[in-house]
Amino acid sequence: MYVNTSVECETLPKNERIEKLGIYKFVGYTSVAINLEYSNTKNYKSILHEIQKNTTLCVYGKVLLYPKTIDTLKKILNSLQIHTDQLIAVHSTDKEILTFSANDSRVDIISIPRILDLMHITPGIISLVKSNKKFLEISLNDIVKTKIHERSRLFHELSKFLQLIGNNTHILLHGGSEDSVYQIRGPFEIVTIFNAIFDVPLNKSKLIVKSNPEQLIRMLNERSGIQYKQFGVRAIPWSE
Amino acid sequence: MHLQRQRYLLFEYKLFAPFSPITEKDIVRTIWKTLTTLFGDYTAYKTGLWMIEFDPLCNYGILRCNNITKERVMASLAFIQEINNSPIVFHTISTTGTIKKAKEIQKQYFEKHRK
Question: Which pTM was predicted?
Answer without folding.
Answer: 0.90
